[in-house]
Amino acid sequence: MPTSTTSLASSPARPRTRSRGFTLLELMIVVAITGMASAAVAFALRDSTQTQLDREAQRLVALLEAARAESRATGVSLQWRATPGGFEFTDGIKPRPQRWDPTTLQARSETPVVLGPEPVIGPQTIRLSNSDAAGPSRWVTTDGLRAFEVRNAAPAGPTGAAP
């Protein structure tokens, strides 16, 4: 029985080539791997020293204002002083120590920071810096009447002189 070659000859010759490109599954896997890698890198990165310094300065402002309010409520004067690796509040009887989040942080004050029960206290200035003196500094200050605030530069006047 003769075979017909007309069916093969009448159809156009199409070479069988594999289509190019990526499948949806391949793209989704690449996106998932990229997302997990970028999340791991973001969690691995530490805060910059300036960010840590700003955060600790804001924390100190909140603690100083809370101690000032406690002093006014109880009628007992509190004093803040820097310690190695941290600071403490004391009422003359029992100190309440605190630690800095980055242990390289240092605080200095030319005068004792007294948080008395009176509504007006003397001007107070605390300088926060990292152990390397070349790094940035923040000053936590009050004029005695207003609340404590964080400044990027030393305040004017004799209390603002950088130690």
UniProtKB/TrEMBL annotation:
InterPro entries linked: N_methyl_site, Pilin-like
Keyword entries, A-Z: Membrane, Transmembrane, Transmembrane helix
Keyword Protein biosynthesis carried by entry: no
Oxidoreductase in keyword set: no
Highest taxon of source: Bacteria
Residue ranges of the TM segments: 21-45
NCBIfam families membership: IV_pilin_GFxxxE
Protein name, entry field: Prepilin-type N-terminal cleavage/methylation domain-containing protein
Originating organism: Rhodoferax potami
